[in-house]
Amino acid sequence: MPETFSLKNTKNFSDFETVYTIFWLLGKLGISICSISLFVFGAEVFPSNIRSTCLGIASFFGNIGGMLPYQTQNLAKINSSFPVAFYCLLSLAGAIATFIIPSKGHEIAN
Question: Where are the transmembrane segments (predicted)?
């Protein structure tokens, strides 16, 4: 009978190298999609006269978000689940902010 993949058969990280690479690439794909969607959705949400300012502010906060992973390593020293909880709270805040944007019943000014 051929040997199947099982966590019991793994001895070190090299057994997970392909799986790790696939998930890493999927994560990078998701980040790229979110980054590009900022400009696609921003062109639809913000009025023309302040669009560039709003996209600049959104890009600024996106860059701040890019610096957060390096700072959250310190949270793991306190408790290993703190970084995950921190990112869950940030995701929840982003989802709530998405629903706060008024779009129904209003025309977007040009």
Answer: 20-41, 53-72, 84-101
